[in-house]
Structures are given as C-alpha cells and as structure tokens.
Sequence to fold (86 residues):
Amino acid sequence: MSTGPNRILDDFAKLMTDAAGAAQGVRKEVETAFHAQAERWLNSMDLVKREEFDVVREMALKAREENEALQKRIEVLEAQLSAKAK
Fold:
C-alpha cells in the first residue's frame, strides 16, 4: 500500500478514472434519451420514410413513361385516322 503523497496521487487518479467512467455513462444515457425523444418527435410529424418515398418516386416515373408512350400511340392513331378521312 502506498503512503504519503503517492497514496494521495493514486487516490486522485482513481477518483478521476471513476469520474470519467461516470461521465461517459451519463453521456450514453443522455444520447439514448435524446434519440428516443427525437424519434418520437419525428414520428409525430407523420413524415415519409426515404424507402417509401423512393418506391413512390419509381412508380411515378414508370407511370410518366407509360403515359408518354400512350400519348405517342394516340398521336399515331389520330394521324392514321386523319389520313383515312382525307
């Protein structure tokens, strides 16, 4: 067992180590609480998840392409009807 100034320094070092560990534990608890609160807040805002947005975006792009193809087909058919009518 240490005596004198060395013991005081050893005790101080142990105290600082324990304080650092406690501070780290408190930090993790605060982070966990913050993340939980942020998640509750975001869920209450009824936001769309990125995955859902991407799926709907792909569906819209596909529908747009199909509409453009149908529009071209209609134009061709109308041109054919117009040519027959003359």
Summary: Residues 28 and 34 are 10 Å apart (CA to CA). The two ends are 114 Å apart (CA to CA).
